[in-house]
UniProtKB/TrEMBL annotation:
Belongs to the UPF0125 (RnfH) family. Pfam families: Ub-RnfH (PF03658). It comes from the Bacteria. SUPFAM superfamilies: MoaD/ThiS. This is RnfH family protein. The lineage of its organism: Bacteria, Pseudomonadati, Pseudomonadota, Gammaproteobacteria, Enterobacterales. It comes from Serratia marcescens. InterPro entries: Mopterin_synth/thiamin_S_b, RnfH, RnfH_sf.
């Protein structure tokens, strides 16, 4: 579950840090398909 910034970590907690997406993956896929069609 996503944690709040103020939550404390316990021993053994798993932490995953993601960077924000720069572009929408669905839109990129659509653009690549359009480009391949040409």
């Amino acid at each position: 579950r996503p944690a709040k910034l103020g939550d404390t970590l316990n021993d053994g907690d798993r932490v995953e840090i993601y960077r924000p997406l720069i572009a929408d993956p669905k839109e990129l896929r659509r653009q690549r398909a359009e480009k391949a069609k040409k």
